[in-house]
Amino acid sequence: MNYQAPVKTTLLELRNLHTDFQTSTGTVKAVDGVSFAIERGERVAVVGESGSGKSAMAMSILRLLTHPGKVAGGEVLLDGRDISRLSEGQLNAIRGRLVGTVFQDPMSSLDPVMRISKQMIEPIMRNLRLNREQAREEAIKWLGKVGIPEPERRIEAYPFEMSGGMRQRVMIAMALSSRPQLVIADEPTTALDVTIQAQIVEVLKTLTEESGAAMLFITHDLGLVARFAHKVAVMYAGRIVEFGRVEDIFASPAHPYTQSLLGTIPSTAMLKSERLPQIPGLPPDMRFPITGCAFKERCAAAHDRCCVEAPRLSQCGIDHTAACWAPHGLGEGATLKAERPDRPNRPFEPDGSVVVELNALWKQFDTSRKMVVRAVNGVNLRVHKGETLGIVGESGCGKSTIARLLLGLEKPTSGDIFIAGLAQMVFQDPASSFNPKMTIGGIVAEPLVVRAHGSKPERKEAVRRLISQVGLDPAFAERYPHQLSGGQRQRVAVARALALNPSVVVADEPTSALDVSVRAQIINLLVDLKQELGISFVFISHDLLTVRYIADRIAVMYLGEVVEYGAAEEVFADPRHPYTKALIDAVPVPDPAIESRRTSTPLQGELPSPLNLPTGCAFASRCPMATDRCRAEKPALPTHDLARQVACHYAS
Amino acid sequence: MAEYAAKKLAQMLITVLGVITLVFFTLRLIPGDAASAMAGDTLSGEALQVLRDQMGLDEPLISQYLGFLRDLAMIDLGETITTRIPIADLLLRALPITLSIAMATIVLSIVISIPLGTLAAFMAHKGRNWLDNGLTGAAMIIDLMPSFWTALVLLLIFSLGLGWFPASGQLNWNNPGSVALRLALPVIVLSLSQVATLARITRTAVLEVLNEDYVRTARSMGWSEMRVLFRHALKNAALPIATVVGLSFGNLLGGTVIVEFIFTIPGVGNLLIAGINSRDYQLVQTLIVLYALLFVVINFTTDLIYKTLDPRVQF
Questions:
Q1: If both were cysteines, with which of A272, A515, B107, B310 could A49 make a disulfide (CB 3.0 to 4.6 Å apart)?
Q2: CATH architecture entry for A10-98+185-191+209-344
């Protein structure tokens, strides 16, 4: 990364910032003494898992926390001036003017009953002292800059008339239009598809570079950090555990947590047969005070001192600090080692028996306005015994509809589905797919009860067996869902799916709601189960690196069609369909060296509406190599074949 | 929009027709009729029969029904069966009174409850709960008191005891002050329960909106709390509030009957009670159709207001 700080002057400095949440069970120290500085024009990424305090820290800067959150101490110096003790009125002169903010969820961050024009123009009038006409022009200019087509017309739209990606562009335009010196972006791309994420990151990067604004970028995605940041702050349990330049953090991480995190992410370079390293345990419960280092229970390098005394950030290189008693954490240049390397992710060897077969499957939904949503358009797929099929594609590509069809939750419009045995489901959000009033035992036993399997004691025994099979203590049967962490709940979801000995488990984004450090645990669990039980999996995800690791075969979907199909590693190593290429290109790789060499521009545009499908190739409207032939003639995908299949006229 | 209005209008007609039919036939299930109610024990069987003939009560039910429909369609409200007074004349005098009570109640309760509920929500959002708790407690107490009871208590204290408000007497529209005094207590009685409901709904709706991401966005743009509250929070909370205001109008129509009776106000409610007592089918069914029409029109208006409050509402 050829970054040169313009002039080294500090724009924002946090000194020993503390933020508390007063809850009924006590004070949660969400931010527990955070200090760091951002230079002018610098992009600093803050990475951490949910509950690490990264968002609370970012929101504390402008005191945007709502009750019961409260800044409890420390200083926030903006341009040398402590803004942490300003009145609300004085702070309002800084909010939106010197510091702009972009939030995580574009679907809910714009006022739904107000036109974009109204939400944008008035702040510009106030901040830049322009009259209404000038402010309107300015707003339109910014909407154009962030890549909104026809900004003169779109400025009069309501937020609900725009896609998530477009709304996030509006948010960015709003934040940047007042020419702030600092932009705080709190997980600005987390809710977006990988291709849209790549576009948004480009927009943020280009426009802040152009205006010279510094950026504080909150994320849990290490790949994005590598693509985007100059410096990285790693947060764990309310504190910064490591801070440094992005190259140093990725090349020679010094804190065991950073070292572990980097190890748990499946990378394209990684051999699929290697077992994915996983961080044991869970992040600490922030409701209780922590003595010593917060990471000690999960750390292989932990020793006596870690239990007594919390380490402070100390120098471990140029501009590089880490809070660890061990000088190099787990070891110099070390990353996490896989436990149980004796249980590798063995490649699948087909024995020929087909468990799932989809033949010329179509699914259409009639909308209230006499229009037809074509969700699945002639899909042929096969899953063999013991095989994992990964389905990837942007939201709206029909992958979740396929899951619902497989489970019989929807009837196909035409075509047929063959399943040898039983299909069961693991959902994305385990928190909302369980009845909160049922015990874990009851939840796992439910499929058995529905099918009247066995007597009550037999079912109880089955539940014990299932719960321990997914790596939990059988005592969990007595607990309730809210007493479990996200990762534990997802294990329970897997146990429930296994209760009836299914031949295929359909997992729809099973790891997306989980934290990075827990994600690897669930992936390893699925790999183990697949090998122990010989179950087939249909693994639906937008996380391409995970799919590459876990799936034997991949089907890439676009607008309800499979555009490319083949062995997972082959598809990744040599994508033939332009859409697959674009998807893989968009995935941020947790390696700043690779990211800085990235030259290709991200895939433009968004998924067209499934209401009126094009006659030719569905991807032609976004394809960089589309010709007249593509727009007129639909490329066919050869059916049922284990080899590579590509639906493109020009696939080499 | 026009298509929606037409569809809605058709729905309204069907609803009103259903009400007419139901009212017409159920009324006639009540033992006794207008003739026997009027005559009491004084007339013999034969004389009663003559009276029935005169009142048109002996015609077949179905032709009475069709006749009623025909008259309604031609906006001919007919006369009361017993006293032969044109119902239109009665309504012309009674309806303005009842509508005044209803409108005054709506306006008063909105003016009180929306600022109150908003303030309670705003304070609760900041972690100061006393107003919120007080509001909830007060609302519960009000809900526990039936309106006929509060009406009697207020009547005893402020009219009969302190003599601040006249408890009887004609309404003289030439003297608006006296009308206001006369209608004040009924309006207060009705407003109490309206305020209790509406303030709580407002509080909940606003509190929910204050936790929305777009409110945080507005704060991050540097807008003042007041502007955030009025421009963003209240505007978004308006939809559930409008729903409840629309629905509570129905309760209000029922409530006017009770307060008019207790405060002896010559409104539609008292007309209805008199009609029921004398089994005056014509009067009662006409009034109930009127109530149904009012109710349906208010619902229709609420739906139209939705669209202006929230652009996302699709017809």
A1: A515
A2: 3-Layer(aba) Sandwich (3.40)
CA–CA distance, B98 with B164 (Å, rounded to integer): 22
**DSSP alpha helices (H): ranges in chain B?**
2-27, 34-39, 45-55, 61-73, 87-125, 130-144, 147-154, 176-210, 213-220, 225-227, 235-262, 268-277, 281-309
- Search chain A and give the residue with CA nearest B128: A67
Task: pLDDT band for B124, please (50, 70, 90 cuts).
Answer: very high
Answer whether A171 touches B (CB < 8 Å). yes
- Residues of chain B neighbouring A91 (CB-CB closer than 8 A): 222
Chain B, window 146-165: residues with a beta carbon less than 8 angstroms from a chain A beta carbon: none
Q: Any chain B CB within 8 A of the CB of A437?
A: no
Task: Report residue B139: phi and psi, to 5°.
Answer: -65, -35
Per-domain residue ranges of chain B: 2-73, 98-266
B214/A160 touch (CB, cutoff 8 Å), yes or no: no
Q: What are all long-range contacts of A72-75, with beta carbons under 8 Å and residues at least 24 apart? A: A72/A18, A72/A19, A72/A20, A73/A16, A73/A17, A73/A18, A74/A14, A74/A15, A74/A16, A74/A17, A74/A18, A74/A33, A74/A34, A74/A35, A75/A13, A75/A14, A75/A15, A75/A16, A75/A17
Order of all β-strands in the sheet with A388-392: A423-426, A504-508, A536-540, A388-392, A553-558, A561-567, A645-646
Rg (CA), chain B: 24
Instruction: Answer yes or no: is the ipTM higher than 0.85.
Output: no
Q: For residue B235, which residues of chain A lie inside 8 Å, CB to CB?
A: 111, 113-114
Task: Pick the range with the lowest mean pLDDT from A1-10, A343-352, A478-487, B280-289.
Answer: A1-10
Asked if A206 and A18 touch (Cβ cutoff 8 Å), the reply is: no
pLDDT band at A343 (very low <50, low <70, confident <90, very high): low
Closest B-chain CA to A105: B213
pLDDT digits (tens, 9 = 90+) for B98-120: 999 999 999 999 999 999 999 99
Considering chain B, what is the average pLDDT of its residues?
Answer: 85
Query: Is residue A613 pLDDT above 90, yes or no?
Result: no
Nearest-by-Cβ selection for A66 from B211, B220, B222: B211
Rounded Cα–Cα distance for residues B185 and B27 (Å): 32
Is pLDDT larger for residue A169 or for residue B48? A169
Domain ranges of chain A: 10-98+185-191+209-344
A305: phi then psi, degrees, rounded to nearest 5? -60, -35
Token pair for A413: 């419009």
Residues A385, A377: contact at Cβ < 8 Å?
no
Which residue spans within A126-190 are E strands per DSSP? 182-186
Q: Are A58 and A238 in contact (CB under 8 A)?
A: no
Q: What is the CATH number of domain B98-266?
A: 1.10.3720.10
Whether A4 has a pLDDT exceeding 60, the answer reads: no
* CB burial string A275-293: b at 16+ within 10 A, e below: bbbbbeebbbebeeebebb
